[in-house]
């Protein structure tokens, strides 16, 4: 398990040492991400067949749920590494970063991937907390990479709010330790914070204490996961970070934080019964979907629009997970993968549009499809997927959630979700539809004139063919996963569902 975690760490220090060769940082990052992904694929194949991996003392532990999240992290890190070459070469050429800035970018990018890979491997809940906090520290430096007023402010806001939030999660972890200190000791592991030990003893733990712990954990990790109303850091951080970093933040970092909630939920659900967990998660889910859909109506920045879309989709995951049962759990886990493909692809598309527009206001960018047909088509696929249009992948997971809502007679929640989904569809189509197909505005909104001056008709799109191939594969994945779920993915999801339905291996 440690091999593929050490690989991005080693790549990070290679990038830091490559002072005279910026290309060395690119090659080290690409090689490290591909090697780690190949190793994770082997581990995921074993986990899909029921194999459970653990280290001496069970500090590190990998079951089907861990392998599923690791697989998404590793594949998305490959995509971000490939796209970074194109994007950062453009930034270097434009003078936005210098050679040293490029080297530090790749160092921090690999460090960020390293910290995210630690999260699903942590069996000890204290180690899990430290890993989630480490993701904040490494990614905050990437958010403020450009050292502009807005980016530094966004990075500072990100650190402050997430650190305050994660402190609540730490308090919840302390309370969980208190609840299990005496009981778990009867099984030979006195004072253990290992998730496996706590799961074995979950029925013996004090339900009132666990309820309190879970509330703190949901608020704490929910802040990092972008759940409303504790989502305030997310739009600024996603909009100011370099585009590949925005893709990682939205596509997988949010899910790493939500992974912490899921691990605690498994323990609390056994001790307190599923209703308590379901009510809290569904409340956060509905709030996130509604608040995000309303804020999406007034966004003029493409990246901020995508950021609020991430809040909406994390709300869908929380709502589905809270719904529980076969439909809800499958929908939540599948939606994690679906969103991790669709949202990064749209950030990559937005990055290319940004490279020729020198700005990301939606009212200042028009007609990009004519300039770059491939990127434009992929953009439309991404919009359709994020809006839940069939036959793309996100429609499938949302449909399963709606089926679960109907089966549970949650008609009011279904009505609210469908109305919010209509607002999301309108916002995405209005914003990105105009960017890709629209004509230059005759009377742009105040402040848009400078961005209109740099529209697609004035500059060629700078592309790198491996990045185009990678984006095309992601676009094809949006359609493929909407029509067919591969057997390996299905096995990982169904085995992960067993953890929350009393059939997991721990």
What would you say this structure looks like, in words?
The structure is a single chain. With 506 residues, this protein is mainly alpha-helical. The protein has one domain. The protein is 77% helix and 1% strand. The chain contains 20 helices and two strands. The protein has helices spanning 2-17, 22-48, 64-94, 99-121, 125-143, 149-185, 195-200, 207-225, 233-240, 243-272, 274-296, 302-323, 325-357, 368-371, 373-386, 393-407, 411-437, 449-453, 465-483, 487-500, and strands spanning 53-54, 61-62. Strands 1-2 form a two-stranded antiparallel sheet. The longest helix has 37 residues, at 149-185. The protein is globular, with a radius of gyration of 22 Å. Residues 441-460 have low confidence and may be disordered.
